[in-house]
């Protein structure tokens, strides 16, 4: 169960190259979507130099518009896996459909459930039967209790390797940012549950210039790490270039956020 009442000590998630929730500051970074074998390798190299141990990237993209780029599918998964192996990083990628579980499971080290699928109970139950960690993003209109209840669907299947992620919610004012990053959710979740809590400032901000301040706020609020989108040529990114950091900008954020984490 998610509640600390039943499980007072922190859950620590361990993968081959990463530890999340042990008091350290985990960095998950990479492109929004996998674009090519060369690109994901290049981006992986850059984020690894800045301390990231998990390489993110979507091959199945949950686009609001059905005519937008939907991801490269299995070819993207292969390139992502190859890059992670070459670099000695862990791979994390989004799953949107239970029918893709077997295929994605062949490649990934960690499943990501996106904001739009936080209450896709069939999907939560399916990843709950795997033995791989699951990053569960807060639904954009979900309360903290909704998020915790969604996590129970994973745990009920026997998989307790859950990482909760705050990525911003819809509020009455999302004119200047894509979502409102709920900083307070971080200490509240840390208080209520034993699961690690990670912040995603990229999807909260929606605009590059606000990613760093939101990421630093997440670190100051006690997050166990960050997930950040990067791109070497943001204007040419297949998806969400407007919120991508360049590798140099990510390097700065990673350093300062880790310093803040170590301070608080
Ligand atoms: C993502 O991380 O690629 C993503 C689509 O995020 P979210 O589900 O938070 O929109």
Describe this structure in words.
The chain has 264 residues and is α/β, with parallel strands linked by helices. The chain has 9 helices and 10 strands. The strands form 2 sheets. It has an 8-stranded parallel β-barrel with strand order 3-4-5-6-7-8-9-10, surrounded by 8 helices. A two-stranded antiparallel sheet has the order 1-2. Helix 4 (121-128) links the parallel strand 6 and strand 7 (134-137). Helix 1 runs parallel beside helix 2 (74-87) and helix 8 (208-220) packs parallel to helix 9. The model has no long low-confidence stretch (mean pLDDT 97). Phosphoenolpyruvate binds next to loops.
Architecture blueprint of SSEs:
Layout: E1 13-14, E2 19-20, E3 26-30, H1 37-49, E4 54-56, H2 74-87, E5 90-94, H3 101-107, E6 110-113, H4 121-128, E7 134-137, H5 144-155, E8 162-166, H6 185-192, E9 197-199, H7 201-205, H8 208-220, E10 225-229, H9 247-263
Helix pairs in contact: 1-2, 4-5, 8-9
The protein binds phosphoenolpyruvate.
